[in-house]
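Sample entry (468 residues):
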Amino acid sequence: MASLFKPTYSRKDPKTGLTVKKKTKKWYGKYRDMNGDIKKVPLCTDKAAAQVMLNELVKRNERQQVGLTDPYEEARKQKIDTHLEAFKNDLDTRNNTRKHIEQTVNRIARGFRACGFERLDQLSSSDVNSWLSEKRIEKAFSIKTCNYYMSAFKQFGTWLVKTKRYPENPFQYLNNLNSRVDTKRKRRHLSTSDFESLLQAADTGKPFRKLTGTDRKMLYLTAAHTGFRARELSSLTTCQFEFKLEHPTITVEAAYTKNRNQAVQPIRKDLADILSAWMNETGRNQADQIVWPGSWVERSAQMIRKDLEQAEISYKDSDGRVFDFHALRHQFISNLVAAGVHPKVAQQLARHSTINLTMDRYTHLENKQVTEALSLLPAVHQIEVDKDQANAPETDLLVPMLVPASDFSCPESSLAVPEFQPKVLKEETPKPINAEDLGVYCLHVSSYDTSSGGGIRTPDTRIMIPLL
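Predicted structure, serialized as tokens:
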């Protein structure tokens, strides 16, 4: 049976110095839980209110025994900020970058404040959709930004389900928008001469956030030959460069890649030799030393824009396409495709999830390259056909034929159309049917063969049957 009690405790009297026993002001409840264990819980100072609280605990315990309790009751009572703090700690334990954690949690918190979510029961995907729609109308968010917020909400909802805080993901039906219709920045790639000019300008340029001109030259060169993003390059240490292997590689840890998978990127031998010599000259060959240190990654677009101005290369071309730091990744993939690399190999080197992303967004071909591709087709020859023989109208008819020039040979006699002569049917007298015409041939046999008919035997098994 459940009961109320006040536990006693010992305390030393400051006046007399004697140890006395006293009872607590707060009432406690004692009852057996669903497992049969005795539980003692603090209640309140008022006895009547404490009895009501104890009765509720007993009723809930009885409901738990028959499976009628809500397993998410405790989580529903907690404020949303408490769950967000636990979610942030979980992201931290999964080797995510500090920037990624802060961006994700801040986006979720901002959306929850705007929608007025304070408890888990208030979470609603329709309210989130309405808020994001308002932001798009106000032009405060682009479609791509809205997709980032949706991904953060869905990630938080999935975490709620996995940690058994909520029965289902309240944001599972949020669908990402088509970001292609709202592309604010279209990137391009540079020609070989322009890219060399950029490297020369960077090499002789002023330092930018602890990066000298030569440092930026090597940075651009590495980005254009590996496809690494700015955040990935800023995380590289000397121990992640393997120059002595038969096929040199650069490794980016999973915490800094976009897909959260470790990237082991092969590089050319000549690039490995250049980087190795530069790192030895600048003293960057010590273990665990950041190769490109500093806060340049936060202003990478501004950094490369200054070097473009120094090289007298326009940041934006006539078609509105720009060349920023991320365009070096476009440079890498476009050069692969232009060199005739198989699309699947280009996708693997770009570390893209789909080949459409590699071919459609990151591959840029100039009109000259497209026109030169047509020269790979067989030669086109036009052959004049006699319009009288071909019953053609009173215009010259040209028939294009795609044949190799070396194999082309067409004498004029072969183009002549033979005159049509209808065949005249003649009356013929019927002839007796011959066995040979029916496809059955006969063999002459000896006259002593009594099974033959007049010295003729046929090998047809349908005829050669035993005589009864």
